[in-house]
Amino acid sequence: MTKVMELLNGCAEYAYTLKVDEKSDVYSFGVVLLELIIGRKPVGEFGDGVDIVGWVNKTRLELSQPSDAALVLAVVDPRLSEYPLTSVIYMFNIAMMCVKEMGPARPTMREVVHMLSNPPHSTTNTHSHNLINL
C-alpha cells in the first residue's frame, strides 16, 4: 500500500470509490494539521494498521475525562508548550473536523481557511495559559 493510500485509509469516500475530491483534500489537510500539532508522522508510528487519526480517536477513548483540553494535552507535541492552550485546542478542533470519517460532515476548504484566518479573540489573547503552565 502506498503512503497516499495509507493516508487516505480513514477517508470513507476514498475507501468506497477510490476517487479523490475536495473533501478528501480536506481530510488530507486535516492529517497535515494533526502532524504539526502532534509532531508525529501520519502512519507507521502507532502500530500495525493504525494511523494518526485512529491513534487520536483511540487516545480519546482511553481518557477518563475526554475533554478537548485533556485530549490535546495527551497528544500534543511538547515543542508547542510555549503556545496558548486555547490556540492549540482551536487548531486541533479544526484538524478533527477535517478528518471526520464521512466527507459531507467535513468543512469545505473555504470554511477551513476562514476558521484559520479568523480565530476567536480568546485564541489570540497573549495572557491565556500556555501548555507549559498546565
Automatic annotation (TrEMBL):
List cellular component terms (GO): membrane
Transmembrane region positions?
Answer: none
What are the residue boundaries of the Protein kinase domain, all occurrences included? Answer: 1-124
Q: Which organism is it from?
A: Sphenostylis stenocarpa
Tell me which positions the record assigns to the signal sequence.
Answer: none
Q: Name one Pfam family in it.
A: PK_Tyr_Ser-Thr
This one is known as: Protein kinase domain-containing protein
What's an example of a GO molecular-function annotation for this chain?
A: protein kinase activity
